[in-house]
UniProtKB/TrEMBL annotation:
UniProt keywords, alphabetically: Hydrolase, Metal-binding, Zinc
Tagged with keyword Hydrolase: yes
Species for this entry: Neoroseomonas terrae
Keyword Amino-acid biosynthesis in record: no
Family annotation (InterPro entries): ArgE/DapE_CS, Bact_exopeptidase_dim_dom, Pept_M20_glutamate_carboxypep, Peptidase_M20, Peptidase_M20_dimer, Peptidase_M20A
NCBIfam families named among the record's database cross-references: PRK07473.1
Taxonomic classification: Bacteria, Pseudomonadati, Pseudomonadota, Alphaproteobacteria, Acetobacterales
Peptidase M20 dimerisation domain span: 186-274
Protein name listed in UniProt: M20/M25/M40 family metallo-hydrolase
SUPFAM superfamilies with a match to the protein in the record: Bacterial exopeptidase dimerisation domain, Zn-dependent exopeptidases
Gene3D superfamilies, A to Z: 3.30.70.360, Zn peptidases
Co-factor(s): Zn(2+)
Amino acid sequence: MTDFPATALPFDADEILARLMRWSACESPTFDAAAVNRMMDMAARDLALLGARIDRIPGRMGLGDCVRARFPHPAGDAAPGILVLAHLDTVHPVGTLAKLPIRREGNKCYGPGIQDMKGGTVLAVEAMRHIIAAGMATHLPVTFLLTPDEEIGSPSTRDVIEAEAARNRFVLVPEPARPDGGVVTGRYAIARFNLKTTGRPSHAGARLGEGRSAIREMAKQIVAIEEMTTEDCTFSVGVIHGGQWVNCVSTTCEAESLSMAKRQEDLDAGVQRMLALRSGANDVTLEVTRGVTRPVWEPDAKGMALYAQARTIANSIGFDIAHQSSGGGSDGNFTGAMGVTTLDGLGVQGALAHTLEEHVLIDSLVPRAKLLAGLMTTLA
């Protein structure tokens, strides 16, 4: 008899994969609120069928809704419990299915958002489904919070995430597992910036010399920004928009930059460097404004104790999990920085998230679902 009965529940990879393929086929890019809400509808229905009470939290900033699903528990809604924190937005625009069709090839299954992070979210749903079907009880109430904007830093939902986390004792984040199958006990600090250069227009063919190109100045700034990267703090530019007509000297150009650091003080120094940038061209202005920020989440004793419990459960299933602090922000940054006991990276194993080769490893589905079920039924 195992010390973790939930890990012996009859999880089936094909059943898990069927739900996951259906979810992945529902495209839900962050900036398409209607598409995200279609995914929220699907998830809400699946959770309601398991007996959860569904609350729909309206979106703002032009982004999608949140879904909060509370499972009945004798302790009632007010008792601190377990929060499963997941996002259902993806970076893949509607139409990606034509280039990244849902398909199973050997031990891999491909699809938009299938690894980041619909896979892990489905594992958590399947864990609850089997726990409920077996008539097992969880020591603590379980709540799911599904959010629509993690891929852009959670600007519209940070307050909801932090409010819900404050009501709970533990936060489980089924973001993708590390490449070695490990979990995440801390995350680096991240800051985003919006940049805008403004020049002077002219006809590029007839009066080129009269213009001052916003694109030219932005190009110089991008090179300078990325050359600020050190081991302590990285800088990258991932979005740029400028100009409309090739025969016009561009008046404006806009870009978005991201900085990441392992320590908050290094990120703070990086923020000051970004905000101190100035235009190097006459008659062209540069404006830098700070966007959303994810605070550093540093490992602490409570988080490491939660990791130790997860590792013990994993060992009982037949595999091991390492832990690490990780780059690539998640909503775990917020809850971990608050001091709420958080464990991240509990989702599927796979690779190449955010690309047209994104996939999960099918043989990871059952062990990882068992790990989540073990945690949900033993945390107290």
